[in-house]
Amino acid sequence: MRARPFIAAACLLAAAAASAREVLPRAESTPVAARRTPVVAAVEKVRGAVVNVSAEELVRIRVPSGQVGGDLFEEFFGHPRYRKGYAVTSLGSGVIVSPDGYVLTNNHVVERGARFRVGLADGRELTAKVVGTDPAADLAVLRIDARERLPYAPMGRSDELLIGETVIAIGNPFGLSHTVTTGVVSAVHRNFKAGERRLFDFIQTDASINPGNSGGPLLDIEGRLIGINTAILGDRSAGIGFAIPVDRARRIAEDLITHGEVREGYLGLEVADLPAPEGARVGASGGVQVAAVDPGSPAERAGIRRGDVVEAMDGAPPDDADALRFRLRDLPVGAAARLDLRRGRERLQVSVGALELSPQRAEQLVQRRVGLALEQARAAGGTVLVVRTVGKGSAAARAGIERGDLVREVNGAEVSTLDEFRRAASSARRTGQLVLLVQRGYASERIPFDLD
Question: Considering 90, 93, 186, 214, which one is annotated as catalytic?
Fold first, then answer.
């Protein structure tokens, strides 16, 4: 009989709970298949191929006095001891583009690194090595050290993109692994300025791209790779991000994997801006003038002459000389450019095939564009590069370079032989600028020259 109050209380509690459950409608469930939109399907298809890239820089760490390795007398006299250490200097994104572990990312993600690790979506961390880099295009290829086949992103085509079509970005913004954002293609073939540098032919998107997204994939709605995310406009991009088109990225990656460097296309054409007509709108160039044609070059064989005006390349008018120079340099070896020319009142169309810019051609290009010829000479401890001749009235002469000066570096890379100079000059052609460290006696100076 005493248990009845407890039973009654339990019944009251159960009734109250049932009443509480009935206050709100029951939760509804939608079948997963109905919620698997094309975006979800694309992310599921490619997410496993997206990696986080951490680059570690080799640094020298000072050993304080009194610690193991420290030396009180050396430190007192200004010569402290150091030991090697590693510090994480960058964290970015990348995308696996082949089952055997090749990864595409940005050069600025890996440029200062000595050791690299990649984090996969399944939580594993694997080591990776740099296969090759192209600073001019801000691209790098890594190879993951893995024995099994890895998930990879299928490649699409960036030349078929439609303004307004849906795109997906996956990356590691602010260290938040495998973050997905969506947007549309805002523009293609976009040129813009970042600091003092002009960048050409990018995909513009409003998909959110933040620090840490660098090197990650931009996908179309089918989950195909169409670009490598690389930049935002200013500190706060406000929905303006840029990606390297996959057509260019693929070509550069194949060169780096196959040849260890990017093969440069060469036409032998130097161009300059035309004076803008009075009252012309901003950006209306009216064409770009041919300033010089290298003897024996593909351009000369195609019949192009100094003074011709390039009105279009492959049907697209150039914004200015800088934009056309980029497109000419970006032409793959073996490919041909269709140029629409104006010669006086005559209109003509020519096709010019790009040859590979070999190291020997790069040296000849420096002689023609800069007016500088070098020779290799013996010196104590090895060889040096000596200026043999300086062309009268040339860019080198205007910069004050004289016969007998020494060339120590090309674009920051030390050179002491003609072969080293040729290879460095060939790489410099990708950027369009040659920076020489010139020494005379005990004085030295870095002097820049345009190679366009």
Answer: 214
Give the tens place of pLDDT for each residue, 130-188.
Answer: 999 998 889 999 999 988 999 999 999 999 999 999 999 999 888 888 999 999 999 99
Q: Which helix (H) or strand (E) is 83 found in, with range?
A: strand 82-96
Given the candidates 3.40.120.10, 2.30.42.10, 3.40.50.300, 3.10.20.70, the CATH classification of the domain at 359-450 is 2.30.42.10
Let me know if 178 is a catalytic residue: no
Tens digit of each residue's pLDDT (9 = 90 or more) over 236-253: 556 789 999 999 999 999
333 versus 71: the higher-pLDDT residue is 333
Structure tokens at 172: 């590691």
**How wide is the angle at C-alpha 82 spanned by C-alphas 78 and 88, nearest 5°?**
130
First to last CA, the chain: 104
Find the catalytic residue in 90, 93, 98, 108.
108
Give me the CATH code for the 166-259 domain, please: 2.40.10.10
pLDDT at 247: 95
pLDDT tens, residue by residue, 286-298 = 789 999 998 889 9
**How many whole angstroms separate alpha carbon 424 and alpha carbon 289?**
29
pLDDT in tens, 383-410: 999 999 999 999 999 999 999 999 999 9
Does the structure show a pLDDT above 60 at 65?
Answer: no
45-144 and 166-259, same CATH topology: yes
> Does residue 138 have an active-site annotation?
yes
Active-site residue among 134, 138, 308, 405? 138
Residue 145 designated active-site: no
Is CATH 2.30.42.10 the right assignment for the domain spanning 265-275+284-356? yes
State percent of the chain over pLDDT 70.
84
- Domain locations along the chain: 45-144, 166-259, 265-275+284-356, 359-450
**For 45-144, CATH number?**
2.40.10.10
Q: What is the structure's pLDDT at 30?
A: 80
- CA 409 – CA 364 distance, rounded (Å): 18
| 37-41: Cβ within 8 A, 24+ apart | 38/166, 38/221, 38/222, 39/166, 39/168, 39/182, 39/221, 41/223
